[in-house]
Amino acid sequence: MRLSLRLPVILIGLPMEGVENPYLVAPGDRVRVEAEYSECDSRGLRAEGLQQDVAERLGEFWRKLMDGLGMGGCANLRVDGMPPRWPTSGVYAAMSSALLYLTARSHADTLDELEIVEMGRMSDPWGEGSLWWQGALDAMRYSAATGKAVAYRNDEESVELSDEGVRAELMSVSAVGGGAGRQELGESLFDAVVHMVGQAVLDASDAIRSGSHVRPEALRRARVQNATAYLVYGVAPPQEGSCVWSPGLPGQLQLVCITG
């Protein structure tokens, strides 16, 4: 099976424990994927053209998916056109979506975008300790499945905004753990931070739906995104105005520069 997928990146929105935050996600570079499924006992995944850490996480995803479906299957992924510095979480979201499409089509079935998100959620390998990060993964997977810029909070609150994408480069990764919550920041300040970043997603989404371009609307609110990352996770705001702290894989933030 051949697929063409756009890699997603979160431009506004951060996971905060105990809160279901919205996210503004944009698609980026398009990659070509050749995927094959075969019956086997090992439930193994072979991935070519991906970084080792992503391939290992996808292997865990695949085994959990097969276990959940009660199936024995092996998969091969061959990826062409992968940009060398695309944020890792977006690669994981897109390639796990490809594995879900492969599984469905190999059994004469189809999945819509929200079914991709739901099945992906059940198969992510991080466990209950990272449930509060799940919304970020869901949002990126929804963008990957639609190929569009989206605003996503949950399955009931998801909006496709635009076909327009961005170019992004991963500059660094910071392990941040759970971050500061209500207890550390206090109820009033925590709620204010939640409202601030949520309003930034809403305002940018409204502007994009009205015809504005994705990149400038996101970067106009980069200070809000980076200030939230500092308040909750203690990461220093970047010097470059086109860079934002974006959710990586659970427990990590990625410093991402939006280059175009």
Radius of gyration of CA atoms, rounded to a whole number: 18 Å
- The sequence of SSEs as H and E is EEEHEHHHEEEHHHHEE
The helical percent reads 40-55%
Q: SS-based structural class?
A: alpha+beta
- Major β-sheet annotation: 6 strands, mixed
The CATH class is Alpha Beta
Strand content: 25-35%
Compute the separation of the termini in Å. 31 Å
Question: How many separate structural domains?
Answer: 1
Question: Explain this structure to me?
Answer:
41% of the residues lie in helices and 28% in strands. With 260 residues, it is of the alpha+beta class. The protein has a single domain (2-258), classed as Ribosomal Protein S5, domain 2 (2-Layer Sandwich), CATH 3.30.230.10. The strands form 2 sheets. Strands 1, 2, 3, 4, 5 and 6 form a 6-stranded mixed sheet that branches. α1 (52-69) runs parallel beside α2 and α6 packs antiparallel against α8 (222-233).
